[in-house]
Specification:
The complex is a heterodimer of chains A (239) and B (229). Chain A has 239 residues and is of the alpha/beta class. In chain A, 37% of the residues lie in helices and 10% in strands. Chain A contains eleven helices and four strands, in the order H-H-H-H-H-H-E-E-H-H-H-E-E-H-H. Chain A has a two-stranded parallel ribbon. A two-stranded parallel sheet of chain A has the order 2-3. Chain B is α+β, with helices and mostly antiparallel strands and 229 residues long. Chain B has two domains: 101 residues, Cyclin A, domain 1 (Orthogonal Bundle), CATH 1.10.472.20; 80 residues, Roll (SH3 type barrels). Helices cover 35% and strands 16% of the residues of chain B. Chain B has eight helices and five strands; from the N terminus they run ααααααββαβαββ. A five-stranded antiparallel beta sheet of chain B has the order 4-3-2-1-5. In chain B, helix 1 runs parallel beside helix 4 and helix 2 crosses helix 4. Chain B starts with 26 loop residues before the first helix and ends with a strand. The chains are: A alpha/beta (239), B alpha+beta (229). Chains A and B meet through helix 2, helix 3, helix 8, helix 9 and strand 3 of A and helix 1, helix 2, helix 4, helix 5 and helix 6 of B. Strand 3 of chain A pairs parallel with strand 4 of chain B, so a sheet runs across the interface.
Chain lengths: 239, 229
């Protein structure tokens, strides 16, 4: 599985992201939020020097600061909200409840926005549609035209989701792309791709893994992964 | 517009870098994200204008820049086009900081009430529903209807990608009446019925596919009725 089968932990998601790829910025600056700095001396990935585009953008930011159209505290507040209030832990709670409660699952598939009202997510709602995997169907989500993503329940998209590679190929050769994520699908499984071209966002309801028999909703949350909710991982009996 | 952003079905990009998993790679990207949200929360421009700004980059710039570099360039374009900043102001800022690299920014010169106002705006906007659904317009199609996508090639913004044009599909679901991005990107709000449409993969790609079906949301203006097979 390319080492991608990490389980979601509410409080560790952003830390995981920070440490992947050997990124060097960390939480050691004693800032109030600990993870939301915009004032470090960043450097270009390849040359060790900030490139012209990045410097230009920083100059623009200084102009916006001068015009009081931005403030650093407000930027840090944005980042803190996106790091703490949204993320795959929201989606995992929704999936876990759908696995545990057939009535909720039915409502979720018929009207996801109404179903989400049951949760206390402190976020603005997006239009949401949830599509169900079965032993005979596998769903995956993409935005070929930009990078639309169900951020209200999955948080900010991983970089690969926003890449030309994923955007161009998943609609035409989904089995090949899924195999790059370690998912091999039988020919009897119908692969359905959801291209998010409007403001409606899509999320996959994965199959409940058989080893979760007898677990309650809170325990089930631990078995839901972000990748399964995007559709680049397949949970369930027939894997 | 038939831009390089319209990537569905393109060849040549290579395998997905499945390990490039983080949302952000560095603090610069986080700052660009935060600035973009603040500008959007102040309604300086809308989401469709933003998408169209990125689509209008020349194709080399689009492909040569990272996701957040495109955001930064897109913000600059729209701030200039909306008159929020002027070319002279931008040039002066760039010149003033020439050689400073990614210098530090802080709020020391900003009015405290203004900072509080922006922070309050962030919380309000983050928690408010941004609905694109409008008063219902009678849909021309029902679930199960056969459609063919119009072969239009507008020079402006559209959310009808090339790979579905001229293809025959089936209405999967009527999605209500939504703001049409083709108009919203150019400053006009019009709402039309929106449909989830199912296409068989072979209809889109003939034999050059290993998938089975693609579902995509298309506005009524993108569609013509088709005779059932």
């Amino acid at each position: 599985m390319n080492g991608r089968d990490e389980r979601l932990k509410h409080e560790h998601i952003m830390e995981d992201e920070h440490t992947r790829d050997g990124d060097e910025y960390s939480n050691d600056h004693g800032h109030e939020h600990g993870h939301s700095h915009v004032h470090e001396h960043g450097h270009g990935h390849d040359t060790g020097e900030p490139d012209e585009l990045k410097s230009r953008a920083r100059a623009l930011q200084s102009l916006l600061l001068e015009k009081e159209l931005i403030s650093i505290e407000a930027i840090n507040e944005v980042l803190a909200l996106f790091e703490t209030e949204v993320g795959p832990m929201n989606g995992a709670r929704v999936v876990a409840r759908a696995w545990a409660d057939p009535d909720f699952k039915q409502l979720l598939l018929e009207d996801a926005n109404e179903a989400l009202d049951e949760f206390d997510f402190e976020i603005g709602e997006q239009h949401l549609t949830v599509v169900e995997n079965t032993p005979k169907t596998h769903n995956a989500v993409v935005c070929t035209l930009c990078s639309c993503y169900p951020w209200s329940i999955l948080g900010l998209p991983p970089t690969w989701y926003k890449s030309p590679q994923y955007r161009s190929r998943i609609v035409r050769e989904p089995r090949t792309v899924l195999s790059e994520f370690g998912v091999e699908l039988g020919s009897d499984v119908e692969v359905q791709i959801w291209d998010a071209s409007s403001e409606i966002r899509y999320m996959v309801l994965p199959q409940r893994p058989p080893e979760t028999d007898g677990l309650d909703e809170d325990e089930l949350v631990e078995h839901v992964t972000r990748d399964a909710m995007i559709g680049v991982e397949r949970l369930g009996a027939d894997v | 517009m038939n831009g390089v952003h319209d990537m569905g079905g393109m060849h040549g990009f290579g395998p997905v870098d499945v390990d490039d998993d983080a949302a952000f790679h560095d603090e610069w990207e986080k700052a660009v994200f935060g600035v973009e949200k603040l500008l959007r929360y102040q309604s300086i421009y809308g989401v469709d204008e933003k998408r169209h700004a990125l689509e209008r980059f020349d194709p080399v710039t689009y492909l040569d820049s990272s996701y957040f570099e495109r955001w930064a360039l897109g913000s600059e374009t729209l701030l200039l086009e909306t008159g929020t900043i002027t070319e002279d102001e931008l040039s002066a800022a760039i010149e003033a900081h020439d050689g400073s690299g990614l210098f530090e920014l802080d709020d020391s010169e900003t009015d405290r009430d203004r900072v509080d106002e922006l922070v309050e705006l962030v919380h309000e906007a983050f928690r408010s529903d941004a609905s694109f659904e409008r008063d219902p317009v009678e849909p021309q199609f029902d679930a199960g209807d056969a459609i063919v996508v119009r072969n239009d090639h507008p020079a402006g913004h559209t959310r009808c990608p090339r790979y579905v044009r001229r293809a025959r599909g089936t209405i999967h679901e009527v999605q209500g009446t939504h703001v049409v991005p083709d108009e919203a990107a150019h400053g006009t709000e019009v709402a039309e019925p929106l449909y989830s449409v199912r296409f068989e993969a072979t209809e889109l790609w003939n034999d050059d596919t290993d998938g089975d079906a693609v579902y995509i949301d298309l506005w009524e203006r993108y569609l013509n009725p088709a005779d059932p097979e």
